[in-house]
Design brief:
- The protein is an alpha+beta fold.
- Helices cover 38% and strands 13% of the residues.
- The strands form five sheets. A six-stranded mixed β-sheet has the order 7-8-9-12-13-14. The chain has a two-stranded antiparallel ribbon with strand order 1-2.
- A hairpin with a 7-residue loop joins strand 1 and strand 2.
- The longest helix is centred in the first third of the chain and has 19 residues.
- The chain is globular.
- The chain starts with a helix and ends in a 9-residue tail after the last strand.
């Protein structure tokens, strides 16, 4: 892999003057490990790799909740964990592949270079066990503990010196290979090996063409957080830097956004702070699973309630179209744009009628049209089809962010109320503020004493 190393390293880690921090590399050098307390949940040992682990967890939950026959989605045998994780990793690799003619890349350890023991010990062990039966354990002896251990002695430079790239040309072959590498994904650096596999399958040049600022690495070299481009790559297959729908022009520059409905969604606390605006393709995914972003971490909110992701109602479509003419999210548009909005929604847009609507929606002649009155005028009394209440769950992979440091889903009930005057008011927590960017009048009743943490 040596000829690709520099390009991959530059793209992922940037070119920090003092080299990649030992502590940041160590935080990322973990595998995909299931929680002992929650058999369908992945654990994150330290801050940083949530940019890969949370999207994988979201797709894993999609497969466990909606593609599995067993009704008890929180129970899985070791064999079921293996199948669920590997089919999820394969699915993400398939989604990023730009062209099947170039095949899929898998980055693994070079033969005999697994970091769990020294190369010499592995070679000796192989020569001694070539004619011996497999141990009773289902795991190879050097991979009994698939944790972040051994990363300290491995080191950044050595890690990149012992990698091997292999290419497979068919989806069937890809799935077989990913399954055969189960212990590699679980072991030391499994998360990074998968990330590198995604990058090389997508193509370095393709990623550079999609990232807005090619100088911004996928992993921040100072804090170790994954970029939005990395999160978008794993969720949508495209490494665009923005979360809005479609492309936008800004000072002659084309800024790329999300181009189609995602399988799993994304909501962010940054929107409640008015730093960005997430578009409908991420807010309204195909399955009711959303990655939640805070300033520093990613967690997952999910439910089995498929009506939450049904087709857009006319009023939801109207809200989305109106807001596309209000990029700064002011809650209003200049009245000069009203005709364009009405045309976009296939409403009657004859000039005389538009003038009549303007006078009705802007009686004080302020020159603006508010979203609320606009929706009430054209889409009154529309039932969204969402139930009044439904069970919800929150996942946070960081041990220290969970009660008693056990990674477990926090259960609750969500109430989605009308905009009149909510009857129930629950705490104003970061999780709720994040969810209010999609459901402005959502209330959450958790079964635990404390609300789940976004961080």
């Amino acid at each position: 892999m040596s000829e690709l190393n520099k390009d991959v390293v530059d793209l992922v880690w940037g070119r920090p003057s003092s080299g990649v921090s030992v502590s940041i590399f160590r935080r990322w050098a973990q595998g995909f490990v299931f929680s002992e307390s929650e058999l369908t949940a992945l654990e994150q040992f330290e801050g940083g790799p949530c940019a890969v682990i949370a999207p994988v967890q979201a797709f894993l939950l999609k497969n466990v909740l909606f593609n599995r026959e067993s009704s008890n989605w929180r129970q899985m045998s070791e064999e079921e964990q293996k199948m669920a994780l590997c089919s999820t990793l394969s699915e993400i690799l398939e989604s990023v592949c730009s062209s099947t003619s170039t095949g899929f890349c898998l980055v693994t350890w070079a033969k005999g270079q697994s970091p769990h023991t020294s190369t010499q010990t592995i070679t000796q062990a192989q020569s001694q066990t070539q004619d011996m039966p497999e141990p009773a354990s289902s795991q190879p002896p050097q991979e009994q503990q698939p944790t972040a251990l051994a990363a300290e002695e491995l080191g950044f430079e050595q890690f990149h010196s012992v990698l091997h790239k292999r290419t497979v040309m068919s989806v069937a072959h890809l799935r077989e290979e990913v399954l055969s590498l189960y212990h590699t994904w679980r072991g030391c650096c499994g998360v990074l090996l998968f990330l590198y596999s995604v990058i090389l399958t997508k193509g370095i040049e393709n990623i550079r063409n999609e990232i807005q600022d090619t100088m911004e690495p996928l992993i921040d070299p100072v804090h170790g957080h994954g970029s939005q481009s990395l999160v978008n790559l794993l969720i949508t297959g495209h490494a665009v830097s923005n979360v809005w729908d479609g492309d936008r022009e800004c000072s002659g520059m084309k800024l790329q956004g999300i181009h189609k409905q995602a399988c799993v969604g994304f909501l962010t606390l940054m929107e409640s702070l008015r730093y960005c605006k997430v578009g409908a393709f991420l807010k309204s995914p195909k399955f009711p699973i959303w990655i939640l972003g805070s300033e520093t971490h990613l967690s997952v909110f999910f439910t089995k309630e498929m009506s939450l992701v049904g087709p857009e109602s006319p009023s939801e479509q109207a809200r989305r179209v109106f807001q596309s003419f209000d990029p700064e999210d002011n809650g209003f548009i200049p009245e000069s744009l009203l005709e364009d909005v009405m045309k976009a929604l296939d409403l009657v847009s004859e000039p005389e009628y538009v003038t009549l609507v303007k006078s009705k929606l802007d009686p004080e002649n302020l020159g603006i049209i508010l979203l609320g009155p606009f929706l009430l005028e054209f889409f009154p009394d529309q039932d969204s089809g969402i139930p009044d209440s439904f069970p919800v769950y929150h996942y946070n992979g960081l041990k220290q962010s969970n009660h008693k440091e056990r990674v477990e889903y926090v259960e609750g009930t969500a109430l989605v109320l009308g905009f009149e005057d909510p009857m129930v008011r629950t705490d104003d927590t970061p999780v709720k503020r994040c969810l209010q960017t999609k459901w402005p009048y959502i209330e959450l009743l958790w079964t635990t004493d404390r609300s789940p943490s976004l961080n």
